Amino acid sequence: MLCIKKLACTSLLALSIIPSPVNAAGGTPNNDNQFKLFAMMAAGTICVGGVIYLLCKAFCSESDEQVVQKAEQKIPVYRATYSDMIGLCKAHTHSPQSDYEDFLYTLAVKKHHQAGIYSYLSDLNSVIQELEKARTELVKRIPNQSAYALKKDMQTAVSDIQTLLNDLIALRDILATHKSYFELYQTESVIGERYARERIVLAHAYGDRNAEMFAIRQYVVAESSTSGSPFPRVSYIKPLDRDIASFEERIRHTGHYPRRVQLAQQLLQSLRAIKGYIVTDATYAQEIISYEQDQREKERIRIEQEKADAERRKAAAAEEQARAEQRKADAAESRVRSERERTRLERERLRAEHSRPQSNTTIILTPESTK
């Protein structure tokens, strides 16, 4: 396409510079000569354009061999990239429907170690679009290819691309249809890893609530104290509250996947238990009071700081205004001095003119003037 545009521009430029023929005798255009010259120039332009087109076709566009080679390079790379996921999808087609959540779980585990659901789907769509473009280009070129061996290679490449596309599109449709399942699994995995130590602490208590409560309280204080916060329990609870809220929201928006939701609910209950053990501690209540007082004091200091900053800005503005007024007054005074100096110089000039002695006038009489 770029070469064709260049060809059109070149042709138009050549036509635009054709000179208008003139009749040597009268200096006016001769229609017959003009037509002949125009036809010759147009024919030359077309020839030049044809040569340019052939050169562009030879050097600017890819040959059929290059297109086939690129396609043959892409197919094994993309098939290797998605082979595990494609294999799982194909295996599932021969499994009973009752194993569907097991299938989704296997996909989720495999995909989780590669990328998040959104980025994974985005990359997959890009690959599908690239392969569809390559297939379309090959299909367009096949009818114009006369070499039997190359034509056969092009047809084989189209078939291989179509087979891979069918597998990738099937994978994409499964991931898109069950996106809420993979989102929940991804959120559950992240939160589960974030609170893995706390869950180990709970597990070591073997269901003894008193032991769980004591172990969690000790763990939270020891873990949070490393941050140097004067309010370790409050500092721990705040992000925990955010995680619980976001996890609850994700579970509510998940489709009908009973086993996945049940496992997520179990993790959520563990987070709620951890929170409960901390907020029921009397030390936490005292810490909350101190924390709120600290926050109020920080807010008061912030307000005072803002007021002080506002006063400083106001004083700076007033100072700048005073400087501007002073510059204005200085400019006015400078203009007055300039005017006075100009007046003084004018007076001196006039005084000098008045004090200059007048020259005597001599009248010469001629005989004609006495008649």
Overall strand count: 0
Domain unit count: 4
Class based on secondary structure composition and strand pairing:
mainly alpha
Largest sheet: none
Count of helical regions: 14
**Through-space gap between termini:** 108 Å
The residue fraction in helices comes out at: over 70%
User: H/E order of the elements?
Assistant: HHHHHHHHHHHHHH
Name its key features.
0% strand, 371 residues, 4 domains, flat, mainly alpha
Q: Could you characterize what this model shows?
A:
By secondary structure, the chain is mainly alpha-helical. The protein has four domains: 2-20 and 31-59; 64-177; 189-280, no CATH class; 295-328. The chain is built from 14 helices and no strands. Helix 1 packs antiparallel against helix 2, helix 3 (64-81) packs antiparallel against helix 6 and helix 8 (179-194) runs antiparallel to helix 11 (232-252). The N and C termini lie far apart (108 Å).
